[in-house]
């Protein structure tokens, strides 16, 4: 049995499942952490670890292949909590619910760890699904991979000094950035350029923020890593003013060109060592190449979308992931 951990709206998961079916595999289960169709049944520590999906029992001891695509904790008790009154004391009830939530997270963590270690084939990592960008940059430099000059700054005075020393900087989130949606609006943070002219709009003191020396780029590279292979794509984002700092500011009228690419062998070896050090066997990495053909590593996303590399380059990565899970 193949166990897939994902979320309901992840199109990439759906495409991989279509390939599994096309390759003749029907013994799989998709667990979407944001859908309340999973129940905990029981665990005896020997040969039975039962959950159920829509009332159908699933013994996780039977997992032969596991893919942690993405997703958080499954709320095994959420629907029941809605109808329960744990205490007349509202403050106590809130703390009790918090305790149950903590127990639920611990059980979820164990389930993912159990299936990952139990399965002969395991792809992705729940425990390493959210990396610290600063730590990854440190590791990259240790493996001899160049990175842009990186600073964490919280005062206008220091920011002004770095701008004078380095010229234009870029800023982006240290963690995942803003991604907020409501009925009428969407809010999303991008990588933005910072110049001395921006200082007038910046407070004297602000929250510690990530800045990097702006690379005068020739092009960007998105790399998908699977097992021991790299699938790379060039993004010609610098040709469009709208996308030259962050290609995610898509221009539908004048789309960037995406082309298949092969990283230099030396870069691939160092990047493979970095993935190994992070205990990851899949993920997406971003690079920029400057006008002198120097490669600068930016970050790794363990659960990033890879269809954007698959389709333009005809890599059929969804099929490759399906084959990985089968083998």
TrEMBL record:
Superkingdom of source: Bacteria
GO cellular component annotations of the record: cytoplasm
Keywords: ATP-binding, Nucleotide-binding
Residues of the ATP-grasp domain: 137-326
GO molecular function, one term: ribosomal S6-glutamic acid ligase activity
GO biological process: SOS response
Protein name according to UniProt: ATP-GRASP peptide maturase, grasp-with-spasm system
Protein species of origin: Pedobacter steynii
